[in-house]
Amino acid sequence: MNGAEALLKTVAAAGIDVCFANGGTTEMPLIMAFDSVTGIKPMLGLFEGVCSGAADGYGRMKEKPALCLLHLGPGLANGVANLHNARRARTPLLNVIGEHASWHMEANAPLAMDIECLCKTFSGWQRTVRSVETIARDAADAIEAALRGQIASLIVPSDHQWKEYRGKIPEVKREGFDPPDRSVIGSAAKMLKSAGKTALVMNGRALRRRGLEAAGRIRAAAGCDLYCINFPAYVDRGAGTVPVARVPYFPEPAAAVMAPYKAVVMAGTDQPVNFFGYEGQWSNPIATGVPKLRVDSDIQDAAEALEALADELDAPGKDALGKIFAAYQVPDVPSGTLTPEKACLTLAALQPENAIIMDEGLTSSMTYFPLGATLAPHSYFMLTGGAIGQGMPSATGASVACPDRPVINLQADGSAMYTVQSLWTQAQAGMNVTTLICSNRSYNIINVELQRVGITNPGPRARSFTDLGSPPIDWPSLSKGMGVPGVAVGTAEDLARELKKALREPGPHLIEMIL
Ligand SMILES: Cc1ncc(C[n+]2csc(CCOP(=O)(O)OP(=O)(O)O)c2C)c(N)n1
Ligand SMILES: [Mg+2]
What we know:
Blueprint: H1 3-13, E1 18-22, H2 28-36, E2 41-44, H3 48-62, E3 67-71, H4 72-89, E4 93-99, H5 115-119, E5 125-128, H6 135-146, E6 151-157, H7 158-162, H8 182-194, E7 198-202, H9 209-222, E8 225-228, E9 235-237, E10 245-246, H10 251-258, E11 263-267, E12 292-294, H11 302-312, H12 340-350, E13 356-360, H13 368-372, E14 378-382, H14 391-401, E15 407-412, H15 413-416, H16 422-428, E16 433-439, H17 444-452, H18 460-463, H19 475-481, E17 486-489, H20 492-504, E18 509-514
Parallel strand pairs: 1-2, 1-3, 3-4, 4-6, 5-6, 7-8, 7-11, 8-10, 11-12, 13-14, 13-15, 15-16, 16-18, 17-18
Antiparallel strand pairs: 9-14
Helix pairs in contact: 1-2, 1-6, 3-4, 3-14, 8-11, 9-11, 12-20
The chain binds thiamine diphosphate and magnesium ion.
């Protein structure tokens, strides 16, 4: 067995069964090892941002790492934006990067780059393999680190891949979370009981079913309002789950929504933060003087902390959640010329139970989230780190994680073009992913930002930063060119018909919604 096989055996023994990859010469022993070490399915991404985004989507759905295999510094650099999104989502992710043979590094060959430096920007753990003897232990350490909800990056020089490995395959331990801190829980309970109107703001494991049920019990006991941050990593949603509102995106409405609260408790997140600092404005939606307390830390389980808080408050059990659960209510399919609002309503009207919704609809999907509360139960996830181009690869990875569930990608057009190659990977594996392109033929958010500073009629040069209309992108052709059937629709009725068809037929589909 060579070093590459030892690495893959360690990965397979840890239960990692998929690898999103784009390799090259420095990964040759690893590429060959996929045939001798079975159990890990390699999936080719035609751009590294597809691989890293798919690994993020997979990790968010499964709460276990996928392997992302990239080629040297340049390959890694192409994948960094979506690794940044994965870091923000605290996705477990094992990132293996091939490196030049250790003795070739000092020669400064054309592809040489400071990979360790790049890794520092998004990795919670990183290591360069120094010898074939340690390669399997290094891989096991990386997996253990990834399982703690972070990116673990392992840089593997090619000579350590091809050399003979004589050691054992180490076992990977899953470290548990630290228990909740009783004194913090006690303080949070006091805060919620004594402070008047309060809010609980959540992200991470707090927004999965178990955390939400604890949050619902806390609401039943203390009357606090429930929120998720503006860019949540993953939310269980729909009738029969505890609904949460979302802290708004722009600083003014976010501050207005948070203004009535006398104290705010957080779980799975630090205090919410505004996306950008605007001239004369502020960084956080919650005013400085308002008492805030986070009930967990990054090494504790937010759901467990919320359960401890519910118990501390003597909250009623889960049976009392009936009144708090969202009721089942689905909007009708609208009619007439499509608008962003009608597109969201049509999706809400037709999305099947157990669907996975990946939302990178940006300005077009702003009205979708509130609709989700009363629909059939579903998974919702979105862009976490603001680095656009996450939607299509993440939807792809989610489908690999949950092949039997319908995945619907509500996808802004400009962002889609960053990682549009995802369609090819979807076609290759026949994935049940339906992509709904929000075709406003612009970088509309930038127009919205211009309006915010009072510019309603930007000059031709400013407009050239936002206009995607000349030439208009021919989405059905682009999609067909990568093996995914595509259509364009301009009315809600046509969208409803095509969406039903896409959901009925197996395999990927793309619908361009002309908005
Ligand atoms: C990696 C990256 N590059 C650039 C940006 C800046 N940016 C934010 S939104 C946006 C365009 C969004 O356009 P589109 O995806 O069509 O959504 P719309 O605004 O039309 O709803 C750009 C370029 C970013 N956030 N991330
Ligand atoms: Mg757009």
